Amino acid sequence: MSLIEKIGIGFGKKETAKTAKGAVVGGVGAFMYSLLSGLDLMPSALTTPDVVPYVVAALATGVNSIRQFFTNHLS
């Protein structure tokens, strides 16, 4: 029996789906930031290098909240 089997760490279909979904949501947040910046709709205070990761994370959180709303209310 390997160490991974003893500890019970697994990476099955459910974990893979969650990881992929998280990557997509994060990517959409980054895309939204790029789009808003490219259209000059992003305030200059939110485009400084030390703030950008937090802005992208906030956009990704917003996208995920909207996705969850539609998932929960249209099912």
Describe what you observe in this structure.
This protein is an all-alpha fold. It has one domain. Helix content is 71%, strand content 0%. The chain has 3 helices and no strands. The radius of gyration is 17 Å and the shape is flat. The model has no long low-confidence stretch (mean pLDDT 86).
- Residues in helix, %: over 70%
| Structural class label | mainly alpha
Strand content: under 5%
Number of strands: 0
Number of domains: 1
Q: Give the uncertain stretches in residue-range form.
A: none
Number of helices: 3
Mean pLDDT: 86
**What's the SSE pattern?**
HHH
Please tell me what the overall shape is: flat
Largest sheet: number of strands, sense, barrel closure: none
Radius of gyration: 17 Å
Report a brief summary of the structure.
The chain has helices at 3-7, 13-38, 52-73. It has 75 residues and is an all-alpha fold. The longest helix has 26 residues, at 13-38.
